[in-house]
Design a protein that fits this description.
With 100 residues, this protein is α/β, with parallel strands linked by helices. The two termini are 13 Å apart.
């Protein structure tokens, strides 16, 4: 399955009949099993239905950082992103790709 960023926004947990998706480096993960974290009101709800690579790399929940732009990130931040990516791969199924 391939989704545009706009289509991905429809999987933010606001519609209980749909799964919750988060994208990292273009891979879309079904994080519905982590609804308490990514669902509405959860501590990471800002990532739901979004490409969250930059925010995860920077350990940021700022709206400005919730995107796929990796330009200007330090080696340390890219390492943090790789750690997050490994955690997501171990915990959540990949269900598609973000259209470029």
């Amino acid at each position: 399955m391939e989704l545009t960023a706009q289509q991905l926004r429809g999987f933010d947990g606001s519609d209980a009949s749909k799964p919750i998706y988060v994208a990292i480096r273009g891979a879309i993960y079904n994080v519905s099993s982590g609804k308490g974290f990514y669902g509405p009101g959860g501590p990471y709800a800002v990532f739901a239905g979004r490409e969250a690579s930059r925010a995860l790399a920077k350990m940021s929940k700022s709206e400005d950082d919730v995107c796929g732009d990796l330009d200007g990130l330090s080696d340390k931040e890219l390492g943090v992103l790789a750690d997050w990516e490994n955690k997501f791969q171990a915990k959540y199924p990949v269900v598609g790709r973000l259209a470029s």
